[in-house]
Design a protein that fits this description.
The complex is a heterodimer. By secondary structure, chain A is an alpha/beta fold. Helices cover about 35% and strands about 15% of the residues of chain A. Helix content of chain B is about 80%, strand content about 0%. The chains are: A alpha/beta, B mainly alpha.
Chain lengths: ~150, ~150
């Protein structure tokens, strides 16, 4: 039903920055089968006031996320849904870690605590947060990312 | 002219009543905070997506409730998704009915599921009507009022 979605949504061309300075980029991959969630998270990220320019891409399932990595893309943060068709978040996270992807992978799910969620964490998540994310939660992720560099 | 001056207030009152009557919760406010000049109809777009995508879930639940015996795991899974989506737009009453339905799934109460699903659909339809009326009025009032919030 859904075609692969790999739009880059930053709305800005860094190379034509008048100041002559290249702002460091923060690249985020949003992996969720729900368009509503992708749309809200993209908008949230676009409105964040960060020192870095935020670039977002989206994928509608775990397989699309893997395909992006196999085609050479890399991301600072991956926001990964759990329940998705074709390939769910647990399997995608396992595969990404097996590929030695070092991105911060954050599970974003409304699934209650239980075996599925435990398996999701054990697949290699750095963190698991409830849907929908807020600006404060994303800023906190970015701070953690910076601290761990 | 005089009528137009009352529109912003009507929009604000209508909006507030949606919260006071329990139809919406804080998540709706979170969506409003994302609305800006670049996307002046962001909230309406998100709500439209919700009704478009959740229609399929409602149909799936209806089909599942027609089967015998009931597959409570499947019903719970569908309703979990529906509850999540409803929560994303701040649909407080819809979300509450979804929770009740899930409780009946957990206890294997088929009659409870069927009865509660009627409530879910009722709240879902009511919220849709109210939001459609609100967005229509907000559009008449103009982009400034559509993006503004009352207390």
């Amino acid at each position: 039903m859904a075609s692969p979605s790999t739009r880059i949504d930053d709305g800005r061309d860094v190379d034509s920055d008048n100041s002559g300075l290249m702002r460091e980029k923060l690249s985020v991959l949003i992996v969720d089968d729900e368009l509503l969630v992708r749309k809200v998270h993209e908008k949230l990220l676009s409105k964040l006031k960060l020192a870095k320019q935020v670039q977002t891409q989206t994928a509608t399932n775990g397989k699309e996320a893997l395909d992006l990595h196999l085609s050479g893309s890399s991301f600072d943060i991956i926001l990964m849904d759990l329940q998705m068709p074709i390939m769910d978040g647990t399997e995608a996270t396992k595969e990404l870690r097996a590929m030695r992807v070092e991105s911060m992978i954050v599970g974003v799910t409304s699934v209650d605590a239980g075996a599925d969620k435990e398996a999701f964490m054990e697949a290699g998540l750095d963190k698991c947060l409830p849907k929908l994310l807020t600006a404060d939660k994303i800023k906190s992720l970015v701070e953690t990312l910076e601290k761990n560099k | 002219m005089e009528r137009n001056n009352h529109l912003p207030r009507q929009v604000a009152l209508m909006r507030q009543s949606l919260f006071d009557q329990g139809y919406l919760d804080e998540q709706f406010v979170q969506l409003e905070e994302l609305q800006d000049d670049a996307n002046p109809n962001f909230v309406e777009e998100v709500v439209t997506l919700y009704y478009r995508d959740s229609a399929r879930l409602v149909a799936s639940i209806e089909q599942a409730l027609d089967k015998s015996p009931l597959d409570f795991n499947k019903l719970d899974s569908y309703m979990h998704q529906f509850k999540g989506s409803s929560s994303s737009i701040g649909g407080r009453k819809v979300k509450a009915e979804c929770s009740q339905f899930r409780e009946y799934c957990r206890t294997g109460n088929g009659e409870g599921c069927i009865r509660t699903f009627q409530q879910v659909k009722r709240e879902y339809a009511t919220l849709r009507k109210k939001l459609e009326a609100y967005f229509q009025l907000a559009r008449q009032a103009g982009p400034r009022e559509a993006a503004s919030r009352s207390t």
